[in-house]
Amino acid sequence: MTDQWSQLNEKLASYPYVDGYTISDRDFEVFKSVPIPAQPSDQNGCSFNSIALAEELGLDHQKLIGAVKSLIAQDGLVTVSETSEKRTELTNEGQEMATNGSHEYNVFVAIGDEGLPQGELMKLPIGKVGMAKAIAAKWIATEKNGAEVRLVREQLEQISLGQEVDAKDKTELKKRKLINEVTVRGLIVEKGPNFTTEIVKPELDLTAEMIQSGSWKEKTFKKYNFEALGVQPSSGHLHPLMKVRAEFRQIFFQMGFTEMPTNRYVESSFWNFDALFQPQQHPARDAHDTFFISDPAISTKFPTDYLERVKTVHSKGGFGSIGYNYDWKLEEAQKMYCALIRRPSLHVNSIL
Fold it and tell me: InterPro entries annotated for this entry (predicted)?
């Protein structure tokens, strides 16, 4: 197990972090130099708790989370689940007291064996608060030894090391805003289905050189993130021709014209050809590239009386025409057709 972790640590050292974070070489040297113990991973060495592991190795937990996120980017390498722990941490003021002693302790030291006038004591930055706490603790009224007056500092030091203190003392420290209850969120990391100690950085782009040499066959490419936002345009404006088009359009509206619904890009052959008197199975229908639709393949929505008139004109003639004298087939007229290549207003005219 230790060898596997060592190999994984070495790969992590050369692999980029996500979220813009890059760990320093020194941090990774420390990370690799410390052997991973049996705890906090499980008995099979297949999972670990990021919070416990950071404590075992003496690492910044956020740096370890960054390494795990880099592994998550490798599809199937590891699987993670969220976990959390409640802890007691020192506030900024509590950290200062743990280092320099509490206000009442500093007041006690300042007074000394010979005493100190109250006016002089109030000139100290911690004089007012420290004096009130020292009087409440009866440190100034009676002689106390150094071990007793250092009690708050020792309690804060214990908490900073993760040790427990008396519940009554903890409540008092909370009232003084020297400690806070915080929730530390971490990850339970387990080996994924594609776990390996050989981490290959995926290619971002397929280049012409890869295609020419054939090396793309041996490359691993990063999956596209279709949810990612595109590049934000610096500015936008209407094209000059679109402005002219809008002006002419408005002029025609003022003259009383109306627009036809020319956005019927998929239509049946009946409206595209038959209603325009183009015979079935005739080269005239191939004047433009014809693309038939597979789904839906046919249309059945036709005005019955108009359909019969079109069929009669094609087969027998009418309205002064002798027609084409052939067997007109409804199946041919029902075929769906993409009208993008031809002038879209032609079949719209026949519908209107």
Answer: aa-tRNA-synth_II/BPL/LPL, Phenylalanyl-tRNA_Synthase, PheRS_DBD1, PheRS_DBD3
The answer on 108 and 34 residing in a single domain is no
Q: Which long-range contacts does 29-38 make (Cβ < 8 Å, 24+ apart)?
A: 30/58, 30/59, 31/57, 31/59, 32/6, 34/58, 35/2, 36/1, 36/2, 36/5
Range of lowest pLDDT (45-54, 89-98, 151-160, 215-224): 151-160
Q: Which domain holds residue 152?
A: 92-177
Q: Are residues 125 and 172 in the same domain?
A: yes
Q: Quick one: pLDDT at residue 250?
A: 94
Count of residues making up the chain: 352
Q: What was the pLDDT predicted at 45?
A: 54
Place of tokens 């007109």: 328
Examine residue 107 and state whether it is found in any structural domain, yes or no.
yes
What is the C-alpha separation between 29 and 26, in angstroms, rounded?
5
Is 332 among the domain residues? Answer: yes
Residue 80 located in a structural domain: yes
Residue at token pair 């004591």 = 121
Contact 202, 220 (CB under 8 A): yes
- Helix 151-160 and helix 92-100: axis angle, to 10°? 120
Q: What is the pTM (predicted TM-score) of this model? A: 0.34
Q: Distance between CA 303 and CA 309 in Å, rounded?
A: 10
Give the pLDDT of residue 109. Answer: 57
